[in-house]
Amino acid sequence: MTLQGTHICLRALEATDLDFLFNTENNELFWEISNTQLPFSKHILQRYIEQSHQDIYQAKQYRFVIGNTEGQPVGLIDLFDFDPHHHRAGVGILVLPKHQQKGYGTEALKLLINYAFSYLNLHQLYANISADNLQSRALFEKYGFLERGCKKDWIYTRNTYKDEIFYQLVQPTDRS
């Protein structure tokens, strides 16, 4: 199964994920990477989970829960800005701090790349990563994402501006 790894699986959001999603989305430490500015209510998140069954071709995005071998959610990985015409999508990943450094993010990104190129027939994936997020940058670089540009002073957070790095992974094409 493409979405099943050795230590994790990528799965759909379930109704039982409401508290996990509520705590994750409303954690101000993560707002910088999610562009969140206000907390979400449980009602809004419940409606989001109810709508999460939408096909990626309809919603143009899909959020996977990263689940460990015990079935517990340890993070989220998203495909967003899905563009089937141009065969590309953005990737965002969040592994909760207490679950970092265990290989979950590495395995999740590997599974997602395989899924995107094999099943969605994408040609490229991209990511936007804060310049100071060295851990995330190293993760994407490990899988062949190349730095393609820098958006100067792109993120305003905690009374300061940060640069954002644009990464891209392009599948080679046979043009013979």
Protein architecture, described:
- There is one protein chain.
- The protein has 176 residues and is an alpha+beta fold.
- It has a single domain, classed as 3-Layer(aba) Sandwich (Aminopeptidase).
- Helices cover 28% and strands 34% of the residues.
- It has six helices and seven strands.
- The protein has helices spanning 18-25, 31-34, 42-51, 56-59, 104-118, 134-142; strands at 8-11, 62-68, 73-83, 88-95, 124-130, 146-157, 160-170.
- A seven-stranded mixed beta sheet has the order 1-2-3-4-5-7-6.
- Strand 4, helix 5 and strand 5 (124-130) form a beta-alpha-beta unit.
- Helix 1 crosses helix 3.
- It starts with 7 loop residues before the first strand and ends in a 6-residue tail after the last strand.
- The model has no long low-confidence stretch (mean pLDDT 89).
Strand order of the largest sheet: 1-2-3-4-5-7-6
The residue ranges in which pLDDT falls below 50 over 5 or more consecutive positions are: none
Question: How many β strands by DSSP?
Answer: 7
Helix content: 25-40%
Rg for CA atoms: 16 Å
H-E order: EHHHHEEEHEHEE
Distance between the termini: 32 Å
CATH superfamily: Gcn5-related N-acetyltransferase (GNAT)
The description of the largest β-sheet is: 7 strands, mixed
Strand content bin? 25-35%
Helix tally equals 6
Averaging pLDDT over every residue, what do you get? 89
Descriptors:
28% helix, seven-stranded mixed beta sheet, globular, Aminopeptidase, alpha+beta, 176 residues
Write the layout of secondary structure elements.
Blueprint: E1 8-11, H1 18-25, H2 31-34, H3 42-51, H4 56-59, E2 62-68, E3 73-83, E4 88-95, H5 104-118, E5 124-130, H6 134-142, E6 146-157, E7 160-170
Parallel strand pairs: 4-5
Antiparallel strand pairs: 1-2, 2-3, 3-4, 5-7, 6-7
